[in-house]
Write a structure and sequence with these properties.
The longest helix has 19 residues, at 286-304. It contains eleven helices and 16 strands. It has 431 residues and is an alpha/beta fold. The chain is elongated, with a radius of gyration of 23 Å. α9 (357-364) runs parallel beside α10 (383-396). It folds into two domains: 24-181, Immunoglobulins (Immunoglobulin-like, Sandwich), CATH 2.60.40; 201-427, Alpha/Beta hydrolase fold, catalytic domain (Rossmann fold, 3-Layer(aba) Sandwich). Belongs to the Fes family. Keywords: Cytoplasm, Hydrolase. Residues 1-24, 183-204 are annotated as: Disordered.
């Protein structure tokens, strides 16, 4: 299998520094310790166990923000430093603001930020026996820099918050993450199975691709009561190893169908395989598009009578998958008429191409019969401007574009809830 070289990201813009804060509860702990009160630490950790982590406290005279305190309890090791890796809140470009502070003489490590009440995100900790001191990248933000490699290494060393039971699974050997959400974060009501909702079925298959020259695993979702006599709408959901396995989307689809917000549909979820293969396939790769259009959809239609109407076909993806969803509509509008992109990697271009390569392609092409839903996180300081630019280009060309932003980052913790919003918006035009 040939794998194209990973494209070079655009010059890296440093992340805007997060707004740090002082936790009233940690300040009270420090005062109690200074006054020599007994059982202070035991009471503090008992309170934390009851409230859960991170600690969320009100900001005086500000109903829209909270002080969010991430806590690490030292297990008695030789920990010299603890880093917080919080999605699009911390970053290697603001490393000093990622370091937790230790309450002297205690097992309490902490770092507080002032965040809007609508925020949701995932995070991890890295506990180190030696202080971390690595380059944060060259002055051009080159992703091949030592700083980038070191930051990736930290990601492999990271671990979820042991005090927070809410977890987000990962893949390819990466550690799971913890999930935090503030009181005004948008609800995610469709995620969990409901006892009164009939369940569809998810199965795994192997589909051979002549375009790719290899077999590809594919997860499929069939709605409850699937009838071989109907032509079902079809959803192609990229990164199927996440949605078919690690973060099963079946409950979301079951609930939306039961509520009448989606018609019964068939979902096809191809495996991303591994990171190099994913970079190849989801980087506007014509053979992968050929696999989806010429092989996967006909394979499914032969078995389950999925529609061949592009107006009732959705292709959806996140990050590079979001880029691929738009590319599929541009190159194969006769098959993909509904495009759903969450945090699409619209900085991508062929080697040497402009960073708004895809937007230029849409601007230069005739207007196509496409309906589009775009989403980005307000904290994605590189992707959000690129997504807004693409939205404006598409609207100027007369496309029907739904656009949404979530208060978060490049994060499955956000995507798994707002995927439903995008699907419902696109299905509103189906008959």
């Amino acid at each position: 299998m040939s794998v194209r070289p990973r494209p070079t990201a655009p010059p890296r813009t440093p992340m805007p520094p997060p707004e740090t804060a002082v936790s009233p509860r940690v300040s009270a702990l420090e005062r109690d310790l200074a006054e020599g009160r007994e059982d202070v630490l035991a009471r503090f950790w008992a309170e934390v166990a009851g409230r859960g982590t991170p600690l969320v406290e009100r900001v005086a005279a500000d109903d829209d923000h909270h002080v969010v305190t991430f806590l690490w309890r030292d297990p008695g090791t030789r920990t010299r430093e603890v880093l917080l890796l919080a999605n699009c809140v911390t970053d290697r470009s603001v490393l000093p603001l990622s370091r937790l502070l230790r309450v002297p003489g205690t097992d309490v490590w902490h770092r507080s930020y002032r965040l809007p009440g609508t925020w949701r995100g995932s995070y991890q900790f890295v506990a180190l026996e030696e202080p971390f001191s690595a380059a944060t990248g060259d002055e051009d933000g080159n992703d091949a820099s030592a700083g980038h490699r070191m930051w990736r290494m930290l990601g492999l060393m990271a671990e979820p918050d042991p005090l927070n039971p809410r977890r987000l699974p990962a893949r390819w050997g990466a550690p799971p993450k913890s999930v935090a959400e503030l009181p005004a974060a948008p609800p995610q009501p469709w995620l969990s199975p409901r006892p009164d909702v009939p369940r569809g079925s998810v199965t795994s298959h192997v589909v051979h691709s002549g375009h790719l020259g290899e077999d590809r695993r594919v997860w499929t979702y069939l709605p409850h009561g699937h009838d071989h006599g109907s032509d079902y709408p079809v959803l192609v959901l990229l990164d199927g190893d996440m949605w078919g396995d690690a973060l099963p989307v079946a409950s979301t689809l079951d609930n939306l169908v039961a509520e009448g917000l989606l018609p019964p549909l068939v979902a096809l979820m191809p495996d991303a395989v591994d990171n190099p293969t994913r970079w190849r396939d989801l980087g506007c790769h014509e053979p992968f598009l050929g696999f989806l259009r010429d092989e996967l959809l006909p394979w499914a239609s032969h078995r389950w009578r999925v529609t061949d109407d592009p107006a009732r076909t959705v292709i959806a993806g996140q990050s590079l998958g979001g880029l691929t969803a738009l590319f599929a509509g541009l190159r194969a509008p006769e098959r993909f008429g509904n495009l759903l992109s969450q945090s699409g990697s619209f900085w991508w271009s062929p080697e040497g191409g402009p960073s708004d390569w895809l937007a230029r392609r849409f601007a230069a092409a005739p207007r196509l019969p496409l309906r589009i839903h775009l989403e980005a996180g307000t904290r994605e300081w590189i992707l959000t401007p690129a997504t807004r630019h693409l939205r404006n280009v598409l609207r100027d060309r007369g496309y029907e574009v739904e656009y949404a932003e979530h208060d978060g980052g490049h994060d499955y913790a956000c995507w798994r809830g707002s995927l439903a919003t995008g699907l419902v918006a696109l299905a509103g035009g189906w008959v």
